[in-house]
Amino acid sequence: MEARSLLSEFCSNSTNLILQKTRKLSTARIVSSSSSFIQSHNRVSFKTHYHTKLVSQRVEIKRRLQCTNSVEKAEDLNAVVKDSGNGVRHKKLAVFVSGGGSNFRSIHEATVEGRVKGDIVVLVTNKSGCGGAEYARASGIPVILFPKTKETEGLSPTDLVSALRKFEVDFILLAGYLKLIPAELIQAYPRSILNIHPSLLPAFGGKDYYGMKVHKAVIASGARYSGPTIHFVDEHYDTGRILAQKAVPVLANDTAEVLAARVLHEEHQLYVEATAALCEERIIWREDGVPLIRSRENPNVYS
């Protein structure tokens, strides 16, 4: 009940701040022409019996979120309405982690540097003391605990969906999150949840394949190649549609730790590239349901 009340208060406070900022914005210059109303995510123009110049606004809102239990305290959170420069607005991202969150960190750095046209607005974790959660707190990113258990005050699946809606999340990125994603979340975010797996799926995937277990199994099998896979999430472990892969050689004297480090290096680059494509709306779905990434430089080239 406390988590629900907090989320409701957060939404109300954010709305009041937006209204206060909006009242201070300068009005559009009115010139001449016909009647209609046109609105997009970042630009608004009005036409009554006049022709109005397009008003492009960048709104920066300082929000203070006082949180306990499931949603932790985050001060001076910046919510910025942005345009990526090509007519596609900045997307809002939620990242799920269970451990150190190295992929989370690499994606966050890419958003800060502008290589990804999006912003991580919330972190979800099942382990409040994990490295990824600590990094989020240090970066001013709110942390949500999920799922709810006998030992923790986490959110239920329904409340989690509500929380992500409050944060206006566009896409969800799983970055070492070891829990099965609930059906409620998948239904609420169709074709909008990505996961990264440290093998070339469908090989070495499934419930019991995660972390170092994957790399040990790859070496034991005699496979000559491994590497990361990024796929969309469905209601099962590692069975969603594959979006991107990167082959990594398995060398004769590799240990699981050495192979893991080689694969992780490629994970960081591949996940950033896939997230950038997601935020720039460059993912195209083929008629047979296979997702493809359209090249930024050449729209006629897909990978």
UniProtKB/TrEMBL annotation:
Q: Which reaction does it catalyse?
A: N(1)-(5-phospho-beta-D-ribosyl)glycinamide + (6R)-10-formyltetrahydrofolate = N(2)-formyl-N(1)-(5-phospho-beta-D-ribosyl)glycinamide + (6S)-5,6,7,8-tetrahydrofolate + H(+)
| Record key words, sorted | Chloroplast, Plastid, Purine biosynthesis, Transferase, Transit peptide
Principal subcellular localization? plastid
Q: Where in the cell is it found?
A: Plastid, Chloroplast
Q: Provide the E.C. number(s) assigned to this enzyme.
A: 2.1.2.2
Q: What CDD domains does the database record attribute to this sequence?
A: FMT_core_GART
Pathways per UniProt? Purine metabolism; IMP biosynthesis via de novo pathway; N(2)-formyl-N(1)-(5-phospho-D-ribosyl)glycinamide from N(1)-(5-phospho-D-ribosyl)glycinamide (10-formyl THF route): step 1/1
| Keyword Transferase annotated | yes
**Example GO biological process term?**
'de novo' IMP biosynthetic process
One annotated GO molecular function is:
phosphoribosylglycinamide formyltransferase activity
Q: Which residues form the Formyl transferase N-terminal domain?
A: 91-275
Q: An example Gene Ontology cellular component term from the record?
A: cytoplasm
Family per UniProt? Belongs to the GART family.
Its protein name is Phosphoribosylglycinamide formyltransferase, chloroplastic
Q: Name the gene that codes for it.
A: LOC104594138
